[in-house]
Amino acid sequence: MRYPRIGLVTVLADDVDAMKAFYSGVLGFETVEHLGSYVEFRSEGVRFAVCARDVMFTHTGHPSYVEETYGQRFELAFPAATPEEVDRLYWELVERGAAAVKPPETMPWGRRTAFIADPEGNIHEVYSLHEGEDA
Predict the structure, then answer these.
(1) CA pair distance 58, 87, nearest whole angstrom
(2) b/e code 100-117 from CB counts within 10 Å (16+ = b)
(3) 135 within a domain of the structure (yes/no)
(4) For residue 11, how far is the Cα from the chain centroid?
(5) Spans in the chain with pLDDT lower than 50
(6) Under 8 Å CB-to-CB from 9, ≥6 apart: which residues?
(7) What distance in Å separates the CA atoms of residue 65 and residue 12, rounded to the nearest whole number?
(8) Distance (Å, whole) CA 126 – CA 135
(9) What integer pLDDT is reported at residue 135 of this predicted model?
(10) Which of 52, 55, 70, 88 lies 20 to 30 Å from 12 when distance is taken between CA atoms?
C-alpha cells in the first residue's frame, strides 16, 4: 500500500499581500509564483502557498471560505538544529516583524520551543531537533 503524501500546504488569507510580506520578508521563504491572490513559496519537501479565501470560494462554492474565522486552524512548525538556535531565531523573527506569542522554553517533551504569529494571527512554532534527528 502506498501511503498518502502531502504535496501542497495552502494558507488561506484575507490579506494575501500582508501574508506574502510575512512569509517572504520575515521568515525568508523565496517567492516562486505570485498571481495576485495566490503566492507560492519555495520550501524543501512540500509546496507552500498563500491563497485568498475568496478565490477558494469562487472555485468551490463552499461558504466556509468566506465565513468569519476564529481560533487556530493550523500551525506550521519550523525545526532548528539546536536549542540555542531556537532562541536566536525567535528573537530574530520577532525583530523582523513576527508577533511574539511565547518566548523560548524547554518543553516537558525535551524540545526547546517558541511561538510566533503571522499577520492574520496564526500561531506557529520554532522547535529544536533532538540530537541526531533530521528536520
Answers:
(1) 42
(2) eeeebeeeeeebbbbbbe
(3) no
(4) 8
(5) none
(6) 46, 47, 48, 49, 76
(7) 8
(8) 12
(9) 64
(10) 88
CA atoms within 13 A on the CB side of 18: 13
- Chain center to CA of 102: 16
- CA dist list (Å): 7 to 38, 56, 104, 108, 115: 16, 18, 30, 32, 25
Distance CA 83, CA 105 (A): 9
Interval 104-133: pLDDT, tens: 999 999 999 999 999 999 999 999 998 878
Q: Is residue 122 part of a domain?
A: yes
> In the structure grid, which three cell numbers stand for residue 86, read together?
531556537
For residues 11 and 22, the answer to whether their CB atoms sit within 8 Å is no
Q: What is the pTM of this model?
A: 0.89
Which residue intervals of 41-107 are DSSP H helices?
Answer: 53-60, 83-96
- List the domain range (segments joined by +) for residue 123: 77-128
Residue 30: give its domain's CATH number: 3.10.180.10
